[in-house]
Backbone:
């Protein structure tokens, strides 16, 4: 069982080549633009330190923001679609160690019903920072 779980991100990534995420709606685009206003994108990174889940903002079933501070936000475009995120379902990340990394397997679940609603993997993390004065 453990061997299969280790391969799940690889299998998902192998399927991701033909996956095309749904475009953001106008409302989602406005929410993303507002969250990243005044910030500049940096070089993508594969891993970030875990932060409290209260710092997670769902933009769509494919786009997440991790707020580290007022000056630093990471954008993550998921590999696959974690259906249910926009409906308030809970995201469960299976990662090992103190970091979340590209390829970490993620599922979404409705905690009231116990039903799994989606499966995806984390993508690269793109830092957005306020420019230095």
Residues:
């Amino acid at each position: 069982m453990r061997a299969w779980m280790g391969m799940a991100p690889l299998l998902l990534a192998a399927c991701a080549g033909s996956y095309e995420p749904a475009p953001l709606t106008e409302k989602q685009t406005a929410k993303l633009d507002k969250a990243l206003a005044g910030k500049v994108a940096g070089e993508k990174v594969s891993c970030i330190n875990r932060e409290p889940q209260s710092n997670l903002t769902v933009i769509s079933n494919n786009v997440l923001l991790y707020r580290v501070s007022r000056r630093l936000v990471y954008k993550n475009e998921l590999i696959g679609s974690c259906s249910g995120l926009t409906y308030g379902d809970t995201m469960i990340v299976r990662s090992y160690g103190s970091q979340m990394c590209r390829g970490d397997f993620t599922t979404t679940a409705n905690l009231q019903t116990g039903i799994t609603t989606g499966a995806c993997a984390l993508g690269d993390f793109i830092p957005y920072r306020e420019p230095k004065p």
Remarks:
- Residues 1-7, 9-16 have pLDDT under 50 and may be disordered.
- The first strand starts at residue 40 and ends at 41.
- The chain has one domain: 2-14+44-129.
